[in-house]
């Protein structure tokens, strides 16, 4: 008898019961304002991982030595944003209630809202560390409240003032920056300046880490719907993630906005896949 | 003083007041089940028209001799399907109430629903002639009622049995074909067999012509979200459209599902643009 | 507890024990003489099948009503042709010895040799029906005997004169055509002329059907390493396959030479996937 | 000592002295009105020929049995149309004065003018057989007389009424068609209807055969600056060329308008290369 | 009645009369020596601007607060370089005579010559600050004087010694560098070293700022005809432009050499569009 | 009589007899584990060189002042690794025995093995300086000993401990790093730290310099089979190469792993071509 060969993220084909981390994909991009395609992001990350080693020379650790379960992609109701967010919420909630860490691969950034809701219910006092090129703080986008351009504003609806910590922001409209400056969220423009201080201040709190990969410079990460010139380098992002993971209690995380149709050379999928490996090893 | 040079569809930069036909784009693709990108379709059709002549050697007519107004693309609330359909409906309604023919460029096929609603309110007894590879007759797609896979079923909700006439259908699930076979819609598979008879039977009725360009063979029209091998040729589609326009009273129409990101060579945009010119001249 | 979602060919996620047909991929292209990339063919066929319906309006049959097991892709020793062919041979042999029909997705055409060897051992008197643009009858290619340009010559080494029946051939060097004309193989150039006669003559014999998809016209199937202008249409190929499957005893088959990196629009993967569905239903 | 390996068109690396046909490239596209890139056409045809056989199963002839010299690409003064046309003229003139047949690979269609001038000087009474999607009969394009949209009009300046015979034309502005209809040139729209009669009428005259490959349907030949839906098939073009070459005295010819940057799948370069082989064998 | 929606550069749809800056496109690339396509640059910059915010977090300014008029693209006589340069000259002259600042979007770099001529007529003593990877100082290119490889030499013909200040140059032939070293122009290789000193020295003079975007590293700006490894970063270019605009009297400027067909991922168009926004805000 | 125009690497069309350096291509990629296509690398480097100047502003030297012979690409037996390596070996041996320096353009990295063998026979005590992202130290890859993932291990088989000096390594499996750490090879991770010391220590020894271009960051060099985020910059690589060439006795070298099908924007070919020019001038 033959077995199925199964394309999980490399080194993540273990059992659910034993796993500490559960990886899953949220293939959704219906609210993307510019170029769509992020729905294919999680699949590309998983596939591209086949070209990676399980070993990290950055951390001297190996995926074979930890226990991750990749549950594959969710089947989402493309076209109905609320149903999609409910599916994400339910999946994350199941993982959290089983005492595991949900690690979501987007999809567009809006999917974060479903997972943050689940995490905030289990972990009152949750803080979000948010790496992104865009502030995502609009109250609505052309009248739509559930948009990837509003996701952090919707998370603020859940968590309130002072619980969202943004880094790398280099795009937004005037109102978003003014709203942030009123103290609703903390916001570092362009890079990771002051990340160390933030990490010190958040010790002991439960942390949701959300990484919009378009924080990277488009030269290193072209494959995203809205590339913004002037971003951070891959190694900077890696170090920032290591800082967060080594010092804080990350209870859930996500990596999003890889859009394979915008990634003609494939280097964005490769970078996203490598970053996922490193983040899995750092958690 | 300098004037603006304005990229309307070629030969369609006339005045609204004088125009008999009003062209507009509906840049929406949020319910697309497979590869998104149709939101950029109308813009590509308009741009590619710059490489066309205004003269048709097929009809010996020239766009310069008729009067069309291109109102550009609608600004749509990406992410909220109902708001989008309302915008389409309102725009088509305005055009119809001004005694003009609305000619919509998609976008995904769901936008047809908004325009059909407007047309059916003005023209009771409206019939739809539907050229497509896909039946689009599902009652829902993963629970979503407003999906491009359900658009003809939603139109049936408005028009009832016997008012939808499909040609070229070569894809659908078993339930769709069985439902069609119960007499709710008339359906010709694979090609335009019997179009002449249908046209004879519909003389005198107001007609909405909706053309999903994926009815074309993928060799001639690769740039669409769900290409289906085994389609009709461009000249067959042209002749079918000429038959409908020359014999029937078309009161509104649309051309949809060009997805420029799937059209790496650009031949699909060129074909869509040429078909639009021919349809404008034939109306 | 969560289950894995598994990307088998659509409708082929059943049990091995119950399956009559076993699908598997042979991701190999190391002997490709021109543009490589066929190693990614089977994966693309499987993935693209997610956009297909399980129902065929051509045959009025549904994959849900038959029993196919997709065993995924073989792990092949890229770089060592003999080891690769041994792996293919062993896999096909296991399937055959379990009384099932092996259905291989290439990969380049050379992989056929491993499966033919397994089939010819179980079924003495095996005949090959070969659909292809290229004769593949060279005795060697630049000194290499195990090359995709020689695969039918190597099959002839196993089966001898009169057991290979080629259709659609439109490329080869002078020696290949002269060698064929000596009666070693039967060969129809350009199309399927005389397929009916061949089928009549082969009734009762065990048949291996090998389909090099580059028999299709490059307009319908651009995504292959060596596209040859002037090929057959998808519907012609479909009908030829229906003729073979409905009249003869096909004991094994393969579909090969889809090269996704050469398929920028994706229509080749879509065609290959649809052809696979139809062939599965016809067998 | 080592020799240089030289990428001539396959089978065309012979001596100049012995050659009956001299192949050369004219890498120019500065007057292209839409998408440029034809400057890379000749190089792509030559390169792609490496994937061809020298043998034609259509004609049962082999390039190894005839004598062709490929002189490579001209070095042209990109940006100065007159200098470019002078270079083409001089090169063609040298070949003609050496008693050989010049076979030019474009580049855009305007380069034909230089070669026609040379051929008409040597062969008074020259007729042009012109296969194309576009009439190319404008007197000027935005004020420019030396434009690829005017090339046949400029040839008419040289040859006068009744010496240009167009086939396959499916695009032009109203004035071009009206001008043609006045009898300046003969013109068959859409296909090769009546080619046999034209060939009969031109027996004995010296013929320049110019093939704008965009006469082909964009499905078979997407890689060109201005693709026009509704073209002829490769096999139709092949047969038309065979008819001309077998019955008439072709003294010079060209094949043009392949634009590799528009040919993402490479099938256009492959078709152009194969057509070049067949035309070389048919001459 | 419906209005036209018009795709100007974002935030630049104001009135001509009130505007201080007039944006226009010069879609020309006929003298491009390597890969053409820059003719589509201005259109891509305008289109891509729709994905930008009008607000700059770099300068804390908003396009909504200044007054820019986008007059669209010029209609240029592709194929006749002199006519093209005359059109550019006339357009720039009109803008200058109306007391406004012309801001040209290329097109290839040669179009700068037309605008410089107009600016130098109005502003005697004009200096050019030139950011580029290539020296563009050849006296001719293959005999052609009006070539993008010669544009700065032609500007020197107009302005004489000491009026051209080059930065970032990393490519040229030996003669260009030797000619520059004779003092005809000042030239900084590789980066912006000494820009501060140049700016100090030019205070009070009228300045034409010309930016060939290929000064950027190809990693950040791949979409150009002749990418040169080893360029400057986007943020360096931004800062250099801020330095020039804040300290000097820029009377005209241009941004050129974006070639969309070479920009498969779209990041070059996004960078060019963002740079244009920043330059508009800095002027 | 006409001469052939021959596409050698720019400035390298001299005579073999006079040449000090002989350039040749090894178009092979059959053991590539991930995305193939490196077989087209040498051809792309040669072609792209046509867009380069022969003059280097980095070194103030000109290819016209040195003597290089480009012997073109080898004809390799795709599919048979041993035959391929023998061809490379024989070609390199001929060049070496004629007292010239072989400069090989890959192809995948495995071709280095053939050239190293030839160089080590002529130069006992040969050391390899190895710039790469990947360690390439596996003993086998899926059972295959002759794989590009094993090439440095195979070179170690020839040269023994202490003769291989790796820089820039940022990927490998745990066993490779552990094996290296045992002292078999010296290995610097991530960058060129300590290159100066290595160069000091190797003075007087014959050196083979092998450059896998994927050492570059994927942002600057996306066009390779296995891009690894976090690489070195082009200018860093250039300086490292200058250091090696100016201080050590390089007797042979190669540049490999450019994969044009993975290089949709063409910047990788441009970078490889420029690096080749610089390396030729530095030797």
Give a short synopsis of this structure:
With 283 residues, chain A is α/β, with parallel strands linked by helices.
Report on this model:
- The structure is a homohexamer of 283-residue chains.
- With 283 residues, chain A is α/β, with parallel strands linked by helices.
- Chain A has a single domain (21-282), classed as Arginase, Chain A, CATH 3.40.800.10.
- The first copy, chain A, has 8 helices and 10 strands.
- Chain A has helices at residues 41-48, 81-97, 112-122, 151-159, 174-184, 195-201, 234-247, 267-282, and strands at residues 21-26, 55-56, 61-62, 68-73, 101-106, 127-131, 164-169, 186-189, 206-212, 249-256.
- Chain A has an 8-stranded parallel sheet, sandwiched between helices. In chain A, strands 2-3 form a two-stranded antiparallel sheet.
- In chain A, strand 9 (206-212), helix 7 and strand 10 (249-256) form a beta-alpha-beta unit.
- Chains in contact: A-B, A-C, A-E, A-F, B-C, B-D, B-E, C-D, C-F, D-E, D-F, E-F.
- The A-E interface holds A 33-35, 169-174, 177, 189-190, 217-220, 222-223, 226-230, 262-265 and E 51-55, 57-58, 62, 217, 219-220, 234-235, 238, 264-267, 270-271, 274-275.
